[in-house]
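Hi V.,

You were right to ask for the full record rather than a summary. Here it is.
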Amino acid sequence: MIETERLLLRLPEERDVDGLAEALGDPEVVRYLSGVTRSREETLEMIGDLLGHWERYGSGLFTIERLEDGAVLGRAGFLVWDPRRWVHGLRDALDEPLETELGWTLARRHWGHGYATEAALAARDWALAELRPRRLISLIHPENVRSQRVSEKLGQHFERDVVTGGRPAQLWST
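Predicted structure:
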């Protein structure tokens, strides 16, 4: 668990399903991710996938919980990627070499309050101290200006264009 001034980042649990489903079921939120919305049942299944990623790779996506009221705002943390094929390890075991992505997703009603930046900075600092990755990347859709601004606040810079899952992405790195 990681605690910031306003947030708690912790391992996902089944009780997070409604807060995460609010984010992942919103077409505007997933527009720059996969583009595919998830039902409550699919979100519950994804929580299992998130925990599997933690078990396989020793890192993964945290649930973002607001300290003030315990509300689940979204998720932030890490996915490992195979940079040869640009597939992530959420459902598959991948072989080295791997890239470690720092990402964030919040329900739309929580946008604009600095939560994504606060969570991403805390996750970054934890990873640098505990995981010591070679580097951290963020894969951001070219039109996702909000996430590009968060990435800049993390000290990342645009490196190059890639394609993940048939969709364009910009690779930002530290």
